[in-house]
Each structure stands twice: as structure tokens, then as C-alpha cells.
Design a protein that fits this description.
By secondary structure, chain A is α/β, with parallel strands linked by helices. Chain A has 14 helices and 14 strands. In chain A, helix 1 crosses helix 14 and helix 7 packs across helix 11.
Chain lengths: ~375, ~375, ~375, ~375
């Protein structure tokens, strides 16, 4: 009998983290894959993930509107509640054997609780990592509900086991994003210069010349400061002479304020070589990471994909605290001078050698092998 | 400035587990206590907890209807989602410094997630224990969201620390239910015989003669079997010649089926000395535990209050697995003969000496002392 | 292209009112019928309507839990809100051309608003009637949202037109319940005596002897009095010497109190020839109406099916005020003596001749003919 | 005893329509006014209505996030469901004698259904009018739920009575917006020129020279065309040589597309004398209406405030169809040439004399007088 696997995607980042797995499961004869999109994943404003997926050949079984406007901690909580209500109905209808949940964003708890209470096996990717935001609690709580753990690095595997999970069901399969990265970097060159200038807004980029990338997401528990932090980082980068690519923040509480700073900067500083992307294509992003002088901000991609690619990264603030990292990352606090100095240092160093701590590009096939044989009890029990 | 503490009560059992703390906080000058009742705690059908509280002098700030009818895993999940939506609005309005959540029932996650996402300090009682039901995952996940842990026994303290919580914020204060037990047992005798026969339905009980108590709650992950299990236990007890007190199950998925078995037994076996209580008064219950020949079932009260009181207990099935227990408990599987034998053995043994593993009756004062000084960071971080 | 019709069923009464239409639409080649059950229609407690439908060969496309426990005006409103959320998602997925809504119960507004806001044509049955409860406002508001009106009598047709609806889309097709009634009464006799005693609880009924039927539903806006009213009616009927069949009330606010009176009466008056049905089979009910000495209460079936069958009816209180009625109905206020007198009078009169004011048993075929050709604009406009 | 009046505000337009009444009720000794803001009224993005109210001295009792992101018919319906859930809890807590609902936007149904099902008297302003959008059905359905009708013109009064409402409870009090208009126009001149150039974005306006105002809101049932329609209107106006003030559309489905056209026009046509206001101050708006050469679009303010002020108006499309209007309005279909011609004609004509069909500026005091004495039965009954 086919395994009915239901993958729940709540954001564009979610999708990027599981895309190779979805593409792989879709091709397997013995897998009946349903993809459910909800929260920011169904909204144009946050990258139209569900549309993107269809374009990638991944049909969605459901697209559910659950994100409550307000962009603040109250609406994050309420949106999670609404997602929980609707995903319960969804699982009642789809009757999956396994629910596949990804990562640690707030809406992840909607799928996790619905599946857990409905006695459905939960497979969770990217557990066991440590970060400095609300995601931290969500990730470990999800681990306590999940039955099968697909962790991305050794560090994470050890942590999940320490959390009292049965080691038999904790698998270091690497990060599925690396599958995509490997695939992109091994595929034929595209004309990245041309492509990158056909979307986004702002000045034209000349990728033969040095450029920096800024990708900074609001930190929920430091909520009130996000706008200030963002301004400081921008100032640091604008004080240097390089071209600058800005990536739009995700939909966490605080993103609206950052968005308005981005708009403001564009209006004020019209002659700067600055280009803004609301939803950069992942493929373009990876190719940019492969050639940028430095990625700046607090995106996990610097740590994770950056390690495999060898991208020089300046990581700012607490958001990625505790994530296992390769040599390619310099960490700094939120300080204009320190940021500028670290960026300068990375530019001088140049690209790093590839490092496989987050996988070797074969996560998807490992995951499907395990999903076919793993048979954890639905009633969990802490191991100590 | 006063501490604004918001206690969230979702069931009658919740209330019993925290009552002494609420009564204590209410009297403290520096504490501004708000009590929010929701889920089964506002419904007459499940014991009219909010009404009970008012009678105990505890005014509720809000009473919110969130329980979706259906009594099954789907509605447990959906009810949790609805609770999450409404509690978010509630916390937005009340702006507590601390949210106090109790135990491990499914609706607990509503309060936990709302508070966590809204950056409010969560104090959690009864974490770190181990049981064999869905509560298990909920309890440990709640621990991963909570900032201050009030555990009930040493065993639990160690487990919460192993889960990566900062030991500085894990306090073994004993179980607050023991405060109430101590108070009841040290207060003047009431005429229990008379009182117990004024409510509930069924035959009159003569408490000078031997009697058994059955308190069995549905086990969510073994959902389909609850009715059968209950029938087997009932048969075992009805095969003995003692008076029998049946306590109605709580509102978890599966309770409707058990309820109909109880009704059926009453109709079939009219001449049995059987009395059924939908919502026994806690005081009466404690006094009954103090004199019963044996408590049978899977209620945590046998393990917890039973240890302090010295009640002989026969604990059935997986629901209390892993809970630290005193000598007063005999564990059996669901088997008619084994249940009957264990009950016979307990009757022969008689009452046990008091054991303080779950506290000495001073939890409430310990908790308030800690709440005044504990100042954990709102942004948590796993300790390994 | 096939018409995609989505019928939304929220209660057992809903189903009975539209069953013949559903069975007819299901057989039509050019109709793609989806049946959605929600609210009390998915709950065993209220008659397991969705199960019943499957047994009648009508598969449901969705069964959604939306009823919030509490049985009071607050939960009626909240349940409607939850239904609206979930039905919106449902219509988004099913993309019906027409949503078929039935009658005037509170949950009807969930389907009506979802469809209206989503620009889907609404066909509404049973508009234009007048009653003395909250249903009154719901029914007329639904008319103001609906595009195609299938009214059950001439009186109702005129009223819908007066409400400013385009007469072109107001069709007096009779009441679809009459289709079923006609079918039942023209089908072969079953052994009703035997059947009726195999379910329900209470004394055995001997249908060769005289018997009364009591069917009383709580009146929402007179909410606080429902229990009292019910007691008075019961006393009146118990003062007479006839066998008595009691039908359980529907799930409106107030039903819990009535339920407990029914239970109480059964316990007190054990030797009375009294039989209680939680969910009587519609077929049995119609056959009972065909032979009962008198139907008492405030059910619309007395007015509607009663007219066609010729059942003597004593209608109590305001609930059916303003409904067009045949000669078979005597109206009384809530007064023990008047109720008893009216019942006595009806018993003396005996059965009435059939009257077709509510249709001749061909509603379903009329409705399908109209659904195929009616093409109202989705943007409505009042006619004056 | 004080009347507890709960006013529910769901949008900035709502507030403008009831502001004079709220200010008046707030001052009345015998009125205990609670203001509840929800839906777009609590969101900065849509004008931060609740913040505005506090600035106007009107404290809100609750601010509830209920708007689900997506800006489409599905989310309009779901947001209404979420509003219904939360407003039910709100009314349960506030226990108002009267709920005051305003107008006919989709979220109005949340308050209307909650109050109606909870047996609370509903007072509704602005019923009985006719328009060409989804608002049409909502307005008349709200009338069918409301108990006290405060209509704004004679035409509307007659229509509400025709809808079967008891004429005794239908009061033509004029439109409360006119109270504000009267007050603004009779207060001292401010330096409008200066003020208007301190907010909004775009070119500086010189109000001594001719200028046009464009205020166009998406039409829900013509949803797919809104972007096109807007482009056509803009072209017509940009072909003329006058200064142009653009007002941002409200949050109905479709507004996102119009917003992006506005942004696009600003980027393309940088040298045009064009100024865009997301949330123009009502006072400024009224003063602008008092001196503009012509108001273009489909805003009700042209018909209503325009009549009292004498503003030349070109009304486009179906949105205001059927609204009683003064001589100041020319209606046109969506056609570039016709729009341009009508605007030219209005500019030639110049200002019109004031007309009191929508009130004389004393609505608020009339409403409070009526609220004190009107005592309609909570159980409504159609009058025919």
C-alpha cells in the first residue's frame, strides 16, 4: 500500500528547505504525496510560494488562507490558531500516514499540533539546531511532538537525542537545501547578469564587479528594535563602495517596519547602486552566493548553504546563535563599525572551500528510504 | 509595581491542580491575579469549573467557549486552535507579566503558544513527569516553551533539566494539590456519609462498609479501545462484592463512549451497590481516598494525592507510566483477573503510611515567593 | 458543462427538508453534486445525519466539525463564525456554480455569507415564511443574500417578492419534504409497530391504540423559559390517558435543559406509556403522523407535512406564528388546560383531508429544471 | 440605569460615518458607551482608525485583529467568520443593551449576527439605500436583523419599511457624516494648502489653482476588472491639465491591484502634478470637497457629503447605483471619453447650492434621543 505523506508548507523558506524532498517523493510510485500550502505560502505578498510550486511541477492539494493581518506577536499567535483549525479539517479529509513538517517558524506549530493530536506520525526536518529567536522554542517543542527526526548536522542529531528522543528515529540526513544547491551549481551556467536585472527594482547590477548581499529578518523577541537594527546595517553597507542587493524580510512580526525602511532608502539614495528583491529566485540566489564578495545579515542560508558553497558571510546579531557553522562565517554584534570591518575582512579573504557539515546533496533520497521503513510508535515516550 | 499574573484554567482537573496557588495569589497585595477559564472549564457538562471557582471566592476575568463538539482527535485539535485565537486576544487585552499554565491537557497548548509568541513569561506547573498518553508530548513541549518550571517531584526536576532547561529556573515545589489535601485532612470531619449520598446518582453508599473507587480516563492514542477497556475493568470490579463509586471521565476524545457504558451498567445492574459521580467534590474525593479500600483506574490522583494520603491504588494501563510513585501503587495491565487480584491484594494490605515525594502541602507559598523574584529571559535558549 | 451544485447541510432537519432534491440531483447526468455536512449534522449526538445520508446513498464531500459546546446564544453565534471560516475554505476548493442552502437555522448563515461574499449563486429553499423565533430574521436575511428562491407555498412567494426580490427568480415549487412524504405513504406498509419499538427508549408502544406525539423545540429568544414551557406541556399530556411519543429537541440554545426534563420524566414516571426518540427515522415519523391521534408541540412538520397528510395538530406558542396553515392545526398558548382541551378536540375530530398548500410531491424535479435554466446576475439589486 | 451601547467599528469609513454619534454618546451621562474596533480599523495599513479615535478622545474598549490576509473574496468571508467568533466573546463580556452597527461593509455582518443571535437590540445606521455592489445584499440583510433603523434619507426610509420592518422603528435622522461636515465648514479656516502638503506623497498641490480628486474603490462583484477600470479613469484624468489628488482604495477584495497601479503611475509620470493620500484626514477631505473643481470616482462621499457641500461630482460605474442624489452628480459609465467630458462639464458648471437630502447636521442628537426611548421587541417579525 502506498504511504500517504502530507507535506505542509507555510512559507517560501519552508519550500526552499524541502523542495528536493517533495520533488523526489512526487516521483516515487509507493508514495502518495499531498502538498498543503497555508499562511504566507499562499500570498503573493510573500512570494506566491504555491504558484512557484505549481511552476516547479508540484501541485498543491490545498491552499488555505490563515494569515491574520497585523504583523505583530498577537497576530502570529492567532494565525497559528487559525492554521490549526483548518489543518485539522485538512488532515481529517486527507488521512495521511505521515505529516511532514519543516523547520521552526511560528506556523509550524499549526501542523505539528493538528497531526500530533490526531495520532498521525510526524516527520520533522531541521530539528535540534539552536538559534536566538522565538524559533528556538518552536523547534524544540516540535521535536517533542515529532516521531521521525531528519536533522541536518551532527550537532543537531546529538541535541535531539539529548532532548529525550529515541535515537533510533533521529537521522542525520543533511539539509535538503543542499540537494538543490548541488544541483544548481552543477547545472549549466545561465546568464545571471541578465536574469537578475529583469526583476526586482532599483539600479542595474554588474555582477562582474564586486557586490554585497543583505538579507536580514526581524527577530521576534527583540521586536521593537528591528527597524533600528536594520538602519544601522544599511548605513554600514552604504558607507562602502560596493554594489548592494537587498532581500525583502519574511513575514514575521516586525517585517512591515523593515519594509518601509527599504522603501525609504530607495527614495532617498536614488543614485546608489542598489537593487531590491522581494522574492529572489532561489536559483539566482544560490548563484549569487557563489560569486558575491560577502553575504550580510542574519539569514540561515549563510550558515547552511554558505558552508557548502564557501560564501564569505557576516552574520549579525542573535538570530543564528548556536547554529553549527563552517569557517566561512564571521559573527558580529549590531555595530556599524564592526559590521563594516567584518565585511571588509571577508572581501579580502575571498571564497572559502566547500564544507559538508550540512550535507552532501543527497538528503531527499535518504529521507524517502527512511520514510518507507521507519515505524515509530504513535504514542511517544521520553527516553529518560 | 504589582505582578500581573494570568492563570489559565481549561478543565476541572486543571483547577484542582492549582487551586491552592490561586487562593494564595489572590490574597497577595503585590499580585494582580486574572483567572481565565476556557474549554471544558466553562461547561456545566464537565463540572462547571468556573461556577465552582466563584463559589470558592475566585472571580474569573474571562470565560470563553472554545470546545468544539465531537469528542474526537479532530475536535481536540480544532478546539486547541480556537482557544489559541481567543487567548491571544485575551492576553492582548490583559497584558500579563506572567501566564501560569497547568499540567498537560491538550488545551494547555492554546495558552502556552499564545503566551510564548506574545513574549510573555510562562510559568508551568507539573512539567517533567512521564505518562503514557498524548499528554506526554504536550507536557514536554510545554516545558520547551515555558520559562519558569514548578515541578512536583525530584524525578520531574531532573527530567526538565535534562530537557535542556536552565536549572536556575526549575523549582521542585511539590504538587499544589497536596496543599489542598493537607488542608482537607487537617480540617474538621464532615459527615461524609451523608454528603456523598446527596449528589451523584445510584445506590446509597455506606462508607462504614468497604468500598472501591473507579476513576478511568480515556487514553487518546489508544482511542479505539477505551470502551472495551472500560468494560473489562467494570466487569472485574462488579465481580467483587464491594460497594463501588464510579467517577465520570474527563472530556478527552473517547469519553462519550465510556459515558454510555456507565449509563448502560446503571440500567442493567440496578441492584448493584453502585454510585456514579459526574463531578465529585474534590473535598469529598480526598476524604474518600482517605478511607477507601482501593482506588482503581488510571487517574493521576492515585499516584500523587494517594502517596501523601496513603491510599491503596491499582493503576491500570499505560496512562500513568513513568510517573514517580510511592509504595501505595500496584500496576496492572488491562486484564480482568489481574485487576481483580491486585484489588484483592490492596484490600488485604490496607492503608499505607504518608509519603512526601509529591510535596508537603506548602507549594502555593513556595510558588509565590519564586514568582516575585525569578526573572528569566523571555528569549529562551537550550542549555546544550 | 456540468453544473456544480454544492448542498450544505447543517442539521438533521435540513437534510429532511432537502433529501428528495439531493437524491434527484445525484441522479442527473448534468449535475455534479457535492454535499457538505457541518454543525450538528456531523454529530452522533444530534442524529448522525452524515451517517444517515451515506446509508441513503448520498456520499458527503466534506464533514466538518464546527459546533462549539455550550448550547447557548454565545456558542450559536461562535459556531456560525467557525462554520463561515471553514465553508469559505470549502467553497474555495470545490468551486461550485451554485450553493444550495436550506431553511433558516442559525448555521445557515455560515453557508449563505460564504457563498455570497465569494460571488457564488445561492439557491435557497423555504424562504418567505414567517415564524416567531430568531429563525425569522435569519430566513429573511438569507433571502436578501440568495439569488434563486425555492419557496414552499404561495404565501411565502408573495412575501419574498415583497422583500424586493426579482419575481423572475422566485419559484413556488412546494416543499421538498412533501416529495418524501408522498413517496413514503405510497410505498408498501412496513411493520411500524415492530420497528418503532426497536429503537428509542421507554415503554413499548401499541400503535393500534391511540397515541400522541410531542415534538417541541427550544425558542431562542424566549430562551430562559424553555424548560418551564416544556414542563407545562408535558404535564398537560401526562394528565391524559394516551400513549405518548416524545421527540428529542434540536441543538438550538436551550435544548440541554429540555433534555434533562425528558430524562427526569422518564425516571420519575416509569410506568407511564412513554417512549422517547432521540432521532426518529423520518419514515417512521411520517407513518406515525399518518395515524397519530394528535401531534403536539411547535414543530414545523405539523403545519407542513401535517397539511398534506391530514394530521391533527396542536401547535403551541410563537415558534410557528405566521406560517401558512391548513385546517388541520389548532393553535394554543402555553397553558396546561388549553393544551389539554385542544388535544381532546383534535382527538375527537380525527384525521383531516389532504391539502396541497405545501406542494404535491414533485418539488425535486421542479427544482432541478429551474437550476438548469435560471441565470440570475450574481450582483443583486433590490427591486424598489 | 445607564444604557450600555456598544459601537462596533470595522473600518475607517465606518468611523467617519458614526463619529459625531460616538462623540455625542460619550458625553451623555446616561449612556455607557463601549467602542470595539476590529478588521481594518485596527491596522495601520488601512488608516489606523483606532489610533485616530483615541486622538479624537474616543477610547476603545477592545481592538481585535480579525482581518485575514489575501485581499480576495475568500478572505473577506473568512475574516467575517473570525470577526463573528471574537465579537461573540466580546458581547458576552460587555453585555450591551444595544449594539450599534454602521453601514454595509462585509465585516458588518460579524457584529450583526453576533448581536442578533445573542438577543441584543441592534441599531443600524445607513440602511435602506441602494448600491451596485456586494454591499447591497449586506445592507438589506443587516436591516432584516436590526431592530432600530437610523436611515439617512427619505428614499431609504421608504425602502426599509417596504422590506417589512416596523415603521415605528425606522427613523430618518439624516447622515451623521453631515454633522461633521457642518461642523468643519462652520469652523475657522485652517491653512489647507500647507496642511495638505505635509503628508501623502507626490507633487506639492497649489489649491488656488484648479484640482480634481479621484476616489475609486474596488467593486467586489466585478472583482476581476478593477485594475482595468482604474487605469481607464486615470488615463482620462491624466489627459486633462489639472492637478490631481488620488485617494487610496479601502480594503475590499481588489484593492491590492489598484494600489499597484497607483504606485506604477507615480513612478512613470513623475513630473505630473499628482499627490497620493493613503489616509487623508477627513477634515482636509471635506475642505477639499468644498473647493475642488470636481470629485471623480465611485465614493459615496460625493453623493452624500457632496450634496450638502455642493461639490461637483462625476460618479463612475455601478457602485453608487440607486443612491438618492442631489443635482451635483453626473453619472457616467467606464469610458475614457465620457469621463473626460463629464469632468469638463462639472468644471464649467462650478459649485452647486447646498441640499439637505442627507441631513442638516443634527443626526447625532436625534439618534441619542431615540436610543433612550425606543423599545423594540428583541424577537422581530416581518410586517406582512
Amino acid at each position: 500500500m502506498k504511504k500517504r505523506v502530507c507535506a505542509v508548507i507555510g512559507s517560501r523558506a519552508n519550500y526552499a528547505s524541502i523542495k528536493s524532498v517533495l520533488q523526489s517523493l512526487k516521483e516515487e510510485k509507493n508514495c502518495d504525496l499531498s502538498i498543503v500550502c497555508f499562511s504566507s505560502a499562499v500570498l503573493d505578498k510573500y512570494g506566491a510560494t504555491s504558484t512557484l510550486m505549481r511552476r516547479d511541477g508540484l501541485e498543491t492539494a490545498k491552499e488555505i488562507y490563515t494569515l491574520i493581518e497585523g504583523d505583530n506577536p498577537v497576530t502570529m499567535a492567532k494565525s497559528t490558531g487559525l492554521g490549526l483549525i483548518e489543518l485539522s479539517s485538512t488532515f481529517q479529509e486527507l488521512k495521511p500516514n505521515i505529516v511532514l513538517v519543516v523547520g521552526d517558524r511560528y506556523e509550524t506549530m499549526s501542523a505539528t499540533i493538528a497531526a500530533s493530536y490526531m495520532n498521525i506520525i510526524i516527520a520533522h526536518t531541521m530539528g535540534g539546531e539552536v538559534t536566538g529567536t522565538i524559533d528556538e522554542s518552536i523547534r524544540h517543542a516540535t521535536t517533542k511532538f515529532a516521531h521521525i527526526h531528519f536533522v541536518a548536522c551532527e550537532d543537531a542529531r546529538e541535541r535531539v537525542v539529548k532532548l529525550g528522543e529515541n535515537p533510533e528515529y533521529v537521522y542525520n540526513v543533511g539539509c535538503p537545501r543542499i540537494d538543490i544547491v548541488k544541483n544548481i551549481l552543477s547545472s549549466q551556467e545561465i546568464n545571471l547578469d541578465r536574469d537578475i536585472n529583469t526583476y526586482g527594482v532599483g539600479a542595474l547590477m554588474d555582477l562582474r564587479k564586486p557586490f554585497l548581499i543583505l538579507s536580514y529578518h526581524p527577530v521576534t523577541t527583540e521586536y521593537s528594535d528591528n527597524a533600528l537594527v536594520y538602519s544601522i546595517i544599511l548605513e554600514a553597507l552604504l558607507s562602502m563602495e560596493y554594489q548592494l542587493i537587498l532581500l525583502w524580510p519574511n513575514s514575521d512580526a516586525g517585517s512591515d517596519k523593515i519594509s518601509s525602511i527599504i522603501r525609504g532608502t530607495r527614495e532617498k539614495d536614488k543614485h546608489r547602486s542598489l537593487r531590491v528583491f522581494k522574492n529572489i529566485k532561489f536559483e539566482d540566489y544560490i548563484r549569487l552566493l557563489n560569486i558575491t564578495q560577502c553575504l550580510v545579515g542574519n539569514s540561515s542560508s549563510g550558515i547552511r548553504e554558505g558552508a557548502y558553497i564557501g560564501t564569505p558571510v557576516v552574520n549579525i546579531g542573535s538570530r543564528q546563535n548556536g547554529r553549527q557553522r563552517g569557517n566561512n562565517v564571521i559573527d558580529v554584534v549590531v555595530n556599524k563599525e564592526q559590521i563594516a570591518m567584518a565585511v571588509a575582512k571577508q572581501i579580502e579573504h575571498g571564497k572559502y572551500p566547500s564544507c559538508e557539515i550540512y550535507g552532501d546533496g543527497t538528503s531527499a533520497e535518504k529521507i524517502w528510504k527512511i520514510l518507507q521503513i521507519a515505524n515509530p510508535p504513535v504514542q511517544k515516550r521520553i527516553c529518560y
